[in-house]
């Protein structure tokens, strides 16, 4: 046990007394939960809104670790499954799937997640290993001032001559790029696993403009006129005055998901479950929807009338979001990346 001097003991007792006076749980007040979060506006919102709300609810402090799925995965692998730097991780299922197979996560104790029961079926597709807290649905966006015939489905990328040489796509490094490949395989082949058919179809698109994270600059400048876009980003661009719209394609929607996972050997597992249930609750999902135009995964959250244009994907429409076999993609992605680089000029 670490030795403590008289001053440290007194300081610790003072902190406990202050917690008691404030009416906060003494045990939780002494704890801190490390929360990985996206940077930029996401980190700011967590710091100013969600983290203080969780502290008020639980009495625990929150330390934010801004990054992304690639960074957090690297941090976890560097530390190993037995001593992870986090107790909870919310990230794309593409990353969570790999980490799950490597033994980092535990199957969820649903008795500690009462809000899990209120989630849409889409949010519970990992057989109890994860829970999707929010979704950014991805449809097909287009410049309304530069396209005469609006698209109705993904196939229009191939069939509409207006789009030839004017298409934007996420590159393969982005999870959306991998979804684009599986989508093309599903549409033009037998299923999502028929990647030979998918690559043949993508090659027929001809030259496309690729981006890792940001397609907004390209469509705003008119470098391309049609591309996969999440509905929240389209709402932001439209509210800034860009003539843009987005459709729900006939073949279904893609999505950026944020799946909650509990680290099997996390230092603050009980606190992690409290935080997970907090994220799955309407009290968290409603402000997230208002701030980022994401689609809530808790079916009890009702989209207000003034937000329905910017958050049109909810209720029964959630069933139109496609899901993918990320174990398959992650296992084969190195070879797929090489093929992508050869054919996607």
UniProtKB/TrEMBL annotation:
Transmembrane segments: none
UniProt KW keywords: Periplasm, Signal
Endpoints of the signal sequence: 1-30
Any matching Pfam family: SBP_bac_8
Keyword Isomerase: no
InterPro entries: SBP, TAT_signal
GO molecular function: thiamine binding; thiamine pyrophosphate binding
Annotated Gene Ontology cellular component terms: outer membrane-bounded periplasmic space
GO biological process: thiamine transport
PANTHER family: ABC TRANSPORTER SUBSTRATE-BINDING PROTEIN (PTHR30006:SF2), THIAMINE-BINDING PERIPLASMIC PROTEIN-RELATED (PTHR30006)
Descriptive protein name: Putative spermidine/putrescine transport system substrate-binding protein
Organism the protein comes from: Rhizobium multihospitium
